[in-house]
User: Which sequence fits this backbone?
C-alpha cells in the first residue's frame, strides 16, 4: 500500500526536511488509508503540498518578463515520487522550468517562489548548482517557508528574500531507523534475513541498530551536511563555520532574525520582490531600446 511504500522510502533516504513535516505526511497517509503511521506520531498540517512547478510570467509575455517558478511542498528528485509525498515539487521539474526560462528570449530574470519544508537531499545539490550557474539573474523568495532542502535551493540564487511573516533555515540532514523486532516478537512473527554481502542487510528494521550500522548512517548524514553547509556558505558568501555555528543550527528562523544572521538579503512581500526585479530590468535596458525595437518591427512589417 501507499503508506508502506512511503515509510520504506523514508527510511532509505537521507532528508533535508523538517522532521515534523515528515510526521505529518505519514499521518496524512495513515488517516487516508486507515493504516498505522509506523511511529511517526505528530499531527499533520492542514496545508496540503501543492502541485509541481509551472512557469508563469510576471509582467506578461514580452521582452523583459520575469519567469516565476513555484517550489511548493515537499521536494523530491523525480516527478514520479511526488505522489508518494501527496504532492510537492521535483528537482527535475525545477530544472526543466529553469531551462525553459533560460531559452526564452522574452525572459530577463527568474523568480523562485518558495513555500516548502524541504525534502530529500537527492538532486538538491545539482539543482542548486544549476541555479548558481544560470546566465540570467535568479532571485528567490521564501513565501512563506524555505526550510532545509528548500533553503539550500534558495541560497543558490543571486538574491534571497523572505516575506515579513515567513521563515527560513532548518539547515541540517537526518535519517531514521525503526526497530520493529519487539513488536514483531509480541505478534509472534519471526523474520529471517537471507543475504549475501557483509553489510547488505545493515540497518534493517527487524533487529536493533548496531553501533557499526549507526556509525555508517551518521557518516552519510555528515557527508550530506558538509555539502549542504558548503553550498549555503558559497551562496550566502560567508564562511562554513558561520553557517554551522549560527543560522539557526537546524532551527527555522523568523524573517528579522534570518536577516540579522545574513541568511537572506531582505524582508519583502512577493509583490515587492517582483517590483524590485522589474525596476532592475528597466534600469538594465539601454536608453531608447524599446523605441528602437518598435521601429525595427515597423520596418520589418513594411518590408
Assistant:
Amino acid at each position: 500500500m501507499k503508506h508502506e511504500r512511503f515509510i520504506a522510502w523514508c527510511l532509505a533516504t537521507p532528508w533535508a526536511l523538517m522532521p515534523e513535516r515528515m510526521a505529518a505526511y505519514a499521518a496524512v497517509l495513515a488517516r487516508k488509508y486507515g493504516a498505522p503511521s509506523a511511529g511517526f506520531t505528530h499531527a499533520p498540517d492542514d496545508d496540503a503540498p501543492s502541485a509541481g512547478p509551472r512557469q508563469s510570467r510576471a509582467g506578461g509575455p514580452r521582452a523583459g518578463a520575469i519567469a516565476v517558478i513555484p517550489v511548493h511542498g515537499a521536494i523530491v528528485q523525480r516527478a514520479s515520487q511526488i505522489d508518494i509525498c501527496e504532492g510537492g515539487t521535483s528537482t527535475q521539474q525545477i530544472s526543466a522550468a529553469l531551462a525553459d526560462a533560460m531559452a526564452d528570449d522574452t525572459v530577463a530574470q527568474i523568480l523562485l517562489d518558495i513555500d516548502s519544508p524541504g525534502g530529500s537531499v537527492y538532486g538538491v545539490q545539482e539543482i542548486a548548482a544549476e541555479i548558481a550557474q544560470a546566465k540570467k539573474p535568479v532571485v528567490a523568495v521564501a513565501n512563506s517557508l524555505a526550510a532545509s532542502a528548500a533553503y539550500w535551493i534558495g541560497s543558490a540564487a543571486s538574491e534571497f528574500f523572505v516575506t515579513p511573516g515567513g521563515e527560513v533555515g532548518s539547515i541540517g540532514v537526518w535519517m531514521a531507523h525503526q526497530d520493529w523486532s519487539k513488536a514483531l516478537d509480541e505478534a509472534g512473527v519471526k523474520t529471517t534475513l537471507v543475504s549475501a554481502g557483509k553489510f547488505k542487510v545493515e540497518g534493517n528494521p527487524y533487529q536493533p541498530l548496531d553501533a557499526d550500522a549507526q556509525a555508517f548512517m551518521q557518516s552519510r548524514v555528515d557527508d550530506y551536511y558538509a555539502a549542504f553547509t558548503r553550498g549555503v556558505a558559497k551562496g550566502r558568501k560567508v564562511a562554513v563555520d558561520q553557517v554551522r555555528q549560527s543560522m539557526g543550527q537546524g532551527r527555522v528562523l523568523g524573517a528579522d532574525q534570518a536577516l540579522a544572521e545574513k541568511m537572506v538579503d531582505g524582508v519583502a512581500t512577493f509583490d515587492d520582490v517582483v517590483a524590485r526585479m522589474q525596476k532592475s530590468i528597466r534600469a538594465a535596458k539601454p536608453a531608447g531600446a524599446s523605441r528602437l525595437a518598435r521601429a525595427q518591427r515597423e520596418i520589418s512589417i513594411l518590408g
The chain is about 40% helix and 15% strand. Confidence is low (pLDDT under 50) at residues 27-56. The two ends are 65 Å apart (CA to CA).
